[in-house]
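Morning run. Coffee first, then this:
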Amino acid sequence: MFTPGQALRLVNIQRVLIRHGFDEIVFAMHLLRPVRFVQYLLPWNWFRRRRDPRAVRLRRVLEDLGPIYVKFGQILSTRRDMLPEDLAVELAKLQDRVPPFPGAAARRIVEEAYGRPLEEVFARFEEQPLASASIAQVHSATLKDGREMIVKVVRPGIEKLIRRDLGIMHLLAGLAEKYWDDARRLRPSNVVREFEKTLLDELDLMREAACATQLRRNFADSELLYVPQVDWDLTRRDVMVMERISGIPVSDIDGLRRAGVDLRWLAEAGVEIFFTQVFRDSFFHADMHPGNIFIRPEPGRHPRVMVVDFGIMSSLSEFDQRYLAENFMAFLDRDYRKVAQLHVESGWVPPGTRVDEFEFAIRTVCEPLFDRPLREISFGNLLLRLFQTARRFNMVVLPQLILLQKTLVSIEGLGRQLYPDLNIWHVARPLLERWMDDRMGLRGFARATRENLPYWLHRLPELPGRIIDVVEKLRDGKLRVEWHAPELETLREELRRNSRRDLLGLCAGVLFLSGILVYALVASGTGEARSLALVLGAAGTALFALAFTE
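And here it is:
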């Protein structure tokens, strides 16, 4: 059931859809199907009129519906593995154009978070925000000790609006999957669930502060990347205080040139930073667009890359890392057979998938990419082609891999904007080979041994006793091995079914023959004896039928 607010919001959504020429979507809803003919009575449908492309109209719908839907469109645009190309390109143009909320409201939220007047915390607090987005806005401030900080404040009442709109999105996604054939393939409900998790996570600034602190710790000794420091004493769920940084926006290429920055070095450093996050730390910044990256020139040395906005972070398991590294290396060697085998062996595609069919599908979509200089090949597009192909074989692409692919596309685009001849493979391959050697070579074996040795030494005294127990059970015939493989369970069930069928068939034969014998021996006997013979025969026939249906 809808709340009154959701009902009004749904009416507004339908009005916006009709205004942008999506009447068919509104009248395809289950409740309006009986009056679908009304669509043809609307005056604007009487004459054929020129309309903008579907993707443009959808982008305008999301812009008219407000910041939550704009953010949804931005996230949806990253799902190029499931969206048509025209929609993905158009939705990527969506920008947060959210007017700031009043500085007085920000002041009130901060004071409520601290339980004391703002003047007791800051020497200066600018009510005019530096930047404003759909979830929060940022103000500059100075602490009592003179340190320059930024204060990020969550929009007032935004959680209530988000939950209202998420409820409607879940409903619309469910209706789409029920009544629209294409939606069953695209599975919008899964996309809405991913969006819900991302959005609700961004509301918790304590979580963002923890992510920033972890990334800062990972690069504490780095000369490439600088992460601003969080002031934990002043950070709350809806207020975050962080060191203010200053630098040249990475998109200001003329400014970087005037500052004497080597653009080729900077482009390669960006790729190295990203792959270091992914493969060394398994923890990466997943929102690396140009607005979140600044460059600080330093005399006599290479500049430092500085990042902000840690609301969207992601991590990869060691399994995910190995999957990516081995696939990238196999692609570089054009070993499509290995790529297909990796997918099947790792469980990314169903076990019954034919490796040869999968290999030919991958070869078909990826070989054209290699028909050009290596420096022009996109890592991100290669990963996208892989996901698109694997989805045809029922591979479920995990959210962290989608975030990785989206961030990789951003890093590549930015790197080639800085230095068009950037060869990403040249920068990334040594990092991948080093990681694989660390994990699977002699160094990996030594590292795993070193890490597991305390555990092995702890369990070693128990080992002789366990071996003696196993030997004694084997000698006494008490050792039983159970194998729960699906194929074995199927075989066991088939054997049990055959055993039941044989037993029922035997019983049916006995009863049937008993009935014939009784009837033959007492053919001239009493009616009760003849009835018994008929009952036995009927019971035998029934059991035979039951055995046949087993």
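The two ends are 46 Å apart (CA to CA). Good start to the day.
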